[in-house]
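Lab notebook: predicted structure, single chain.

Context: the supervisor wants predicted structures on file for every construct in the current expression panel, including those that have not yet been purified. This is the next one on the list. No modifications to the sequence; it matches the entry in the shared construct table.
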Amino acid sequence: MLSLGREYTPEITERQRGFAQVVVDAGADYIVGAHSHCIQPYEVLKSADGRDVPCLWSAGNFISDINLKPPITRDTLILDLRLERDAEGRVVLASETYHPCRIMNMRSGPEQRNYAVVPASANLRSNELKVALRDARERITRVVGPGIRPSDDAAE
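Prediction complete. Output recorded below exactly as produced.
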């Protein structure tokens, strides 16, 4: 987990790219970034020795009720990585997907707070909450990009 990047923007800075490249060239196999308080894209970086290294620049907030720059600071995801051993006994990435989620206040009223991380695939009764989850999923998948698929798309 790397803490890098500019806060409250899905844009990747050149400084971020440079720092991540140093980490990749030093031998990292996967990078999961943090610090921006919002989702940032997924990319595959190339190491100096020719390896492809997945990089999720930021998975967003997870346990936070930050109310700056909504709605992007309430979008989050759960990365789902499956590791296996190959024929030579090395640990390799077998699959990767993610679960788009939204940090939601499950109570109403100014003094009532009960924040929960809710999967975008949740079937909630409230139409307002359903719309919020649908919109969050659309934002998250747009920012993350096509390099990794959401878990509910993985079987397609």
